[in-house]
Amino acid sequence: MGEYLTQGLEPEEWAELSTVERARRCRAMAAEAQRLSKGAEGEVRNVYFALSVHWMALANEIEQSDS
């Protein structure tokens, strides 16, 4: 396997981001999880896909909370 989602932040760094930047980062994580799902098989593929869906949902929630 050997591939990891690499765009994580420490909690202190996350707290300093604007809501726009937080949503952008979540969408980047969703894209990365989706990319990894395409190269995975079986349950791992399903997990990466589910992560992608959850990252997108979080991005949408962040944007809605800013309105």
How would you sum up this structure, described in words?
This protein has 67 residues and is mainly alpha-helical. It has 3 helices and no strands. It has helices at 11-16, 19-38, 42-66.
Short description:
The chain is mainly α. The chain is built from 3 helices and no strands. The chain has helices spanning 11-16, 19-38, 42-66.
**SSE string, helix = H, strand = E?**
HHH
List low-pLDDT spans.
none
Note the gap between the termini.
Answer: 40 Å
DSSP strand count? 0
State the helix count: 3
Shape: elongated
Largest sheet: none
Structural class: mainly alpha
**If you average the pLDDT, what whole number results?**
88
Keywords:
about 70 residues, mainly alpha, 3 helices, about 75% helix, elongated
Write the layout of secondary structure elements.
Elements: H1 11-16, H2 19-38, H3 42-66
Helix pairs in contact: 2-3
